[in-house]
Amino acid sequence: MQALVVNRRGPGSIEFDEHFAVPEPASHEVLLRVRLASVCSTDLEIVRGYMGFVGVPGHEFVATVERGPDRLLGKRVVAEINCVSPDSPARDEDSRKHAWPRTVIGILGRDGAFAEWLAAPAENCHLVPDSISDREAVFVEPLAAAVQVLRDHPITPDSRVAVLGSGRLGVLVAQVIRDAGAAACIVGRNAETLALCRSLGLAARNIAELDAADVYDLIVECTGSADGLRLAMRHEPAIELLRQRRVVVEPFIQSEFPLRNGAEALAAAAQPGGLKILLRPGGVA
Description:
By secondary structure, the chain is of the alpha/beta class. The protein contains eight helices and 16 strands. Helix 4 (140-152) packs across helix 5 and helix 4 crosses helix 7 (236-243).
């Protein structure tokens, strides 16, 4: 199969491999045909050597189940990225997703979605409604991270929240906070992305405009620096936000590249102020 492989020849190396082995899923896993994947800041850090990862990166994706249980077969899905053994002694779902040992799709011990195929546990997969396009579905994973902000820090309609960073994650977080009824102001440096935020009806300020008199109840840091392993989280709230069009994502897609131009795609994603870059495996409609 076609795959984009990183760090095989040392940190920073990127290779397009036309003959990378198709994964063989374990008994509790499904075989996924990748429809579309997107590049995030974590992928860029992985290329630079983060986590010591060697292999196929990519964890934001939408795919079709080609082999697996009947309830999933032939369906479009997104997947949670933390993968644990079905024999894990953890009792509840949340603790299971953080149990050790585990692998993380495209980040730790498991090849990811910058390829034509990948394997993942069946229980990690979530169905994507027909009303959500592939280009929207690739935002489920980062949008789930945005939803996690409200789970960790409940807010009320009178909460004043500042979101630091007008990039992809920051704008998703701001929309989730607005959907919860609170006032969110995006604070950033890039005039273009700040203008895009305003076009969506979001309050946006240049960081140079802030002073000591500005007081917020909660500040969410979304500047795009390396953020370590992401927490596993359920994707259902993120999918519902997209299905009901309560969060808008299409304006943040900058370009789409074929998989064989993966190095060019990663370079584009690394540009300051860049928006979302997508990768599409060959032969997928």
